[in-house]
Amino acid sequence: MIDITSQECFLWHTTIKICDMPMFNPLTIRFWGVRGSIPCPGSHTVRYGGNTPCVEIQANGQRIIFDGGTGLRVLGEHLMSQQPVAAHLFFTHTHWDHIQGFPFFQPAFVPGNQFHIYAVPGKNGQGIERRLNDQMLHPNFPVPLQIMGGDLRFYDLEAGEQVHLGGGVVVSNEALNHPGGGVGYRVSWQGIHVAYITDTEHLPDQLHPGAFVLADRADVMIYDATYTDEEYHHPRQSKVGWGHSTWQEAVKLAQAAQVKQLILFHHDPSHDDDFLDRIGELARAQFPQTLLAREGLMISVYPNVM
């Protein structure tokens, strides 16, 4: 059973309960940034939000953060009241919209906080420490990475590698289809599986094998739905080769992989709130268990102990 409730405050807060077993601690997902490409604040994006990608998952005492777009700055402000902070930060790749919030992540500047930072090196061979360091060098930024006072530990992953975080929480990755390279992730704990599949372009004649492995029977699949099929195949402004997918392809993958809950993510900055509302209506007509990611969305998934 999925129970959806919401209330309005500084952010919209929605809780989805999958397998309603409140006596057990759930895995929780919270969205801090849901846009792709570039932040797009303004009156036209106020309901879904304008920050670039950042998703937080908590499971059995482990805090996992996916990507460091401008949503990471907002998450950092939230965490300043919970110090000391320890977390695992996984990057899908290092295009600007996925790393631009890291220099403004306040907890990383505070001694006593600890962050384990992971990514698969890009096709140029550069690891995550080098990429985060380089974006904070002159003339891009006034102070270097080394000014951060937190305990930052960097790890270069192999494609397909599993990371065991403790407490039975496992994060695995698979290579996806994105210019310069990129991976998606799957979090597993107590029989719960959450797939984070963003910045990937679908294949023209089959499901992408890496995306399918991540999505297979997932309780929640978060998927790159930057475009519509019409935008992707536009005769004059085609998006083929840009490294992103569509909501229609998200539905195809969710159906084939027998996903329980689909979350459309990485919204194009040109898609205003009304446009996203319409996408949600069309997607739910094909796959009823579909939601569009928005800042403040919270999902709780309870272990299936029956």
Nearest-angstrom radius of gyration? 18 Å
Q: Helix count?
A: 7
CATH superfamily: Ribonuclease Z/Hydroxyacylglutathione hydrolase-like
CATH topology: Metallo-beta-lactamase, Chain A
User: Portion of residues in helices?
Assistant: 10-25%
Oligomer: single chain
What does this structure look like?
With 306 residues, the protein is an alpha/beta fold. It has one domain (2-301): Metallo-beta-lactamase, Chain A, CATH 3.60.15.10. It contains seven helices and 16 strands. It has helices spanning 71-79, 96-99, 128-135, 209-215, 229-232, 247-257, 273-286, and strands at residues 2-8, 12-18, 27-33, 54-59, 62-66, 86-90, 114-119, 151-156, 162-166, 169-175, 183-189, 192-197, 220-224, 261-265, 290-292, 297-301. A nine-stranded mixed sheet has the order 1-2-16-3-4-5-6-7-8. Strand 5 (62-66), helix 1 (71-79) and strand 6 form a beta-alpha-beta unit. The radius of gyration is 18 Å and the shape is globular. The model is unreliable at 1-13 (pLDDT under 50).
What features would you highlight for this structure?
306 residues; alpha/beta; Metallo-beta-lactamase, Chain A; nine-stranded mixed β-sheet; seven-stranded mixed β-sheet; 7 helices; 16 strands; 19% helix
In short:
By secondary structure, the protein is α/β, with parallel strands linked by helices.
